[in-house]
Amino acid sequence: MNQDLKIMYDLVRRTREVLFEFTESLPNQIYTLERPDFAYGSIRNIHAHVAFCYLAWIGVALGYKREDLIVPAEQISDATAMRERFGVVDKIVNEALEKFTTPDEPLEFEHRSGNLKLTQRWLLLHPITHEFHHKGQLLALARVLEHPLPEGVDTDLVLPFE
User: Fold this and answer.
1) Model-wide pTM > 0.70
2) Taking CA atoms, which of 4, 7, 90, 144 is between 20 and 30 Å from 27?
């Protein structure tokens, strides 16, 4: 696969580490607190949804069975366990970065809404943009729960040489 995509995913993975440091600093009752007025209901559930998005798109494209990739959020006890779940995400993304050799060639992807025409590049980029979208929701929920991101901590894309 294109070296640029590998470099980009490494930046995403390192950026995610900043978020994990933050979520692991939260009391677990805050990390798992259900708020039905927020999408996915808790910080943990948002995080689990992001992991599942990577696994459902990329894992299925690699031939994994969707049902084998599902881990209900309730089975992920805390932010440290979520970090471990993202270890599986990293493994699958790295596998795709090695196996996806025709990034812009159209491919058929079976989806619940029907067959979609996608590319390997899209399959990698979609979960990344999705992750950054939901990171905003996760941080907004943390603020509402009176646990804002500490002053000076930045969860935007890490700088390339940090």
Assistant:
1) yes
2) 90
